[in-house]
Specification:
This is CGNR zinc finger domain-containing protein. The chain is mainly α and 171 residues long. It contains six helices and six strands, in the order αββαααββαββα. Helix 1 packs antiparallel against helix 2, helix 1 crosses helix 3 and helix 3 runs antiparallel to helix 4.
């Protein structure tokens, strides 16, 4: 889930925290920086071509977070296109949803699409959210007990509450 959120937020979102962000020029550098910020390392090196293909994957995954009408169809297509098949590989064995010989993009796409599909399939699709603050499209996986999270972070929450307060004061 964390990888799905990261890919969508880094490669498919054009407005974040009240500002227009645009699509990064150097996608590989943007992903490398996001991975380093989280302390993640990949077993395979990410190339510029991989990052460009991952932008397409992020666009496929984005509707799942916004509960769009095409979310299920888009996820099903992504699962098929990237060969999502449960299997064990490695030593010790690890459950993955991509073939052992899959390239980096297909592996990440299959695993992230499967994670989203599993969340939706067990009736927890409401936990896949998009920030409710104005001018913010960032997505997140709501892990609160009562699924009450509405904003991607504290800065968006503060902006929204201050805006609502100013609107009440004007009225």
């Amino acid at each position: 889930m964390d990888l799905a959120v990261l890919l969508v937020n880094e490669l498919a979102v054009t407005r974040a925290r009240g500002r227009t962000t645009g699509v990064p020029e150097d996608r590989r550098a943007a992903l490398d920086a996001a991975f380093a910020e989280r302390g993640w390392t990949s077993s395979r090196a990410l190339t510029g071509s991989d990052a460009d293909r991952l932008a397409g994957v992020a666009a496929e995954l984005h509707p799942a977070f916004t509960a769009g009408p095409d979310a299920t169809a888009a996820l099903n297509q992504a699962l098929v296109r990237h060969g999502a098949v449960p299997n064990l590989h490695g030593d010790p064995p690890v459950l993955a949803f991509h073939g052992p010989g899959a390239d980096l993009v297909d592996a990440w796409a299959a695993d992230t699409a499967t994670a989203l599909a599993m969340v939706i399939g067990v009736g927890q699709g409401v936990r896949l959210r998009s920030c409710e603050a104005a001018a913010c499209e960032l997505v997140f996986f709501d892990v609160t007990r009562n699924t009450s999270r509405r904003f991607c972070g504290l800065s968006c929450q503060n902006r929204a509450k201050a805006s609502a307060y100013r609107a009440r004061r004007r009225a």
